[in-house]
Amino acid sequence: xxxxxxxxxxxxxxxxxxxxxxxxxxxxxxxxxxxxxxxxxxxxxxxxxxxxxxxxxxxxxxxxxxxxxxxxxxxxxxxxxxxxxxxxxxxxxxxxxxxxxxxxxxxxxxxxxxxxxxxxxxxxxxxxxxxxxxxxxxxxx
Length: 141
Ligand code: HEC
Known about the structure:
The chain is mostly helical. It is built from seven helices and no strands.
């Protein structure tokens, strides 16, 4: 019965968070982001905090897909790197502060996500690199 159910739910599609357009307001385009920092943030954060989710095969399998869809919808609402340039200075400042505390506290990326997306997990060094650069950016605003 469980198997039948698992097969059955594959027919309920999820909406795709995907877009081909390179957004002019993207965080990486409007800031002079070092390649290393860019790689870390795109790998660990962009699936949920941008208009483009990279969907490996297991994310097309239910119920994983529903679960991710929910995170993407919520994550984007709170912070969308693609819309960075449209944020007010005040909002940028508060988001950068929040990014720092989320990473410091190990809240982001969500553990339920890194459970399957091992490559998104931040090592100690990666955390340090990102935190240092984000703090510098915040001070320069
Ligand atoms: C699996 C999806 C997912 C990934 C990956 C992810 N986030 Fe999030 N993020 C969320 C969701 C959902 C929320 C809102 C609910 C919550 O706080 O749990 C959120 C909230 C946030 C907030 C709070 C925004 C605010 O207004 O205070 C920040 C900052 C944030 N994420 C930064 C990051 C950073 C930086 C990364 C990468 C290191 C990251 N997130 C990776 C899903 C994700």
